[in-house]
Structures are given as structure tokens and as C-alpha cells.
Amino acid sequence: MGFLTIAGWAQQGGTVRGNVYDKATGEPIIFGTVYLDGTEYGTNTDENGFFSMGNIPPGNYRLVATYIGYDSVAVDIEVRPGRIVQQQLYMVESSVNLSVVDVSARKEKARSEVAVSALTISPRQIEALPSIGGQTDLAQYLPVLPGIITTGDQGGQIYIRGGSPIQNRIMLDGMTIFNPFHSIGLFSVFETETIRTIDVLTGGFGAEHGGR
Q: What ranges in 119-191 are assigned the alpha helix state H?
């Protein structure tokens, strides 16, 4: 009975939600990354720049928004039990070129380079795969790789070497992307024509990836 009583009085989490906009134009930032610094809580904005994170433990946090080509923005917030924190974030375009682009430009790789537990894929390989509706997408190509399976009817999840989807880490030019696959599982948020190369690491990756 004592355990039941304690559980009944457990603190309720709060919700953090809001919108991210371009400060100069007022346009929404689409598929931007929003997260609570120092935690595992994070999400991406939708087509309206809206984001929402629920069941956040009460406490003080730093809310951070990042997007390619923009300076990151951060604000301090307080999450209270059962309350909603509504926060608007405004981002400014960065005047500094991304160094990762310069590094990628100096790399000369084969279109498909196989290493230990690693694959490098080119957009041409994705486009060569028969596609649904004539539109090629990374989500349709991943299942042809060894050790990777996807589910299209349960949230567009990917499973690598028997691991769970939460153990995967998807990154775009060094930034973590949350929920990159649409619910139908056939398409991702990445447009094939904008991709330079794709590195798929299924094991043996370095400590910089944080165990994911």
C-alpha cells in the first residue's frame, strides 16, 4: 500500500511548446531542431514552425533552437508540474559559412565506399532504386542495406542490427535530427537532390556519437 500511495502523489510533468521564426522575415523555421540543453528531450518544428515536448520533469532548463544557416538561439525557462510553457523563438541568419561544407568539399570518395560497419551512399544510388510514385527517398533505400529494417505502419521507425529506434542517431551536417521519417514510413524529411553523401554507421562508431 505504501508504494501505491507514493506513486499516486508522483509529480506531474510539464509541457514546453511554441514556434520558431526567422527574425527578419517572420517566416516559420521548418524542421528546425529544438531541445532542452543537457537532456534527452528534443524535437523538430513542423511546417508552421511549431514544436511541442511533453512530460518534462519540473525544473529550470535552457531551451535551444538550431537550424542550418542560422545562429542558434537559447532561452532559460522554468517547467512547473502540469503547466504549459509557451515560448516563441526568433533566429537570425548566420554570416559565417559552415566549416563542415568546406571539409566535405575536400573529400574524394567513391560513390559507394564500404568500410568496417560503415557505408557511404550517394544520391545517384538512391535514385537508381525503383520508387513509389516515381519519387525516390532515403527512407525507401535504407531497407536494402544489410542489418537495417523499417516499419511503415508504426511511425516510420528504423531498426539497425536489432537495436531499437531510440538508439539511432540521425545527423544532418553535424546536427541531430529528431523524428526524420514520416508516419507512413515511405518518405523522410530529406530531399534527395539536396544530399551530397550519406554515411551509415551500423557499429564501431567513435565516442563522439555518444553511444548512439
A: 123-127, 138-141
Nearest CA to 32 among 67, 64, 69?
A: 67
Summarised one tens digit per residue, pLDDT across range 64-97 is 999 988 999 999 999 999 999 999 999 999 875 4
Choices 2.60.120, 2.170.130, 2.60.40, 1.10.150: CATH for 99-209 = 2.170.130
Tell me the pLDDT tens digit for each residue of 121-155: 777 776 776 665 556 676 666 777 776 776 654 44
C-alpha cell at 192: 534527395
CATH fold, domain 2-91, is: Immunoglobulin-like (2.60.40)
> Distance between CA 41 and CA 43 in Å, rounded?
7
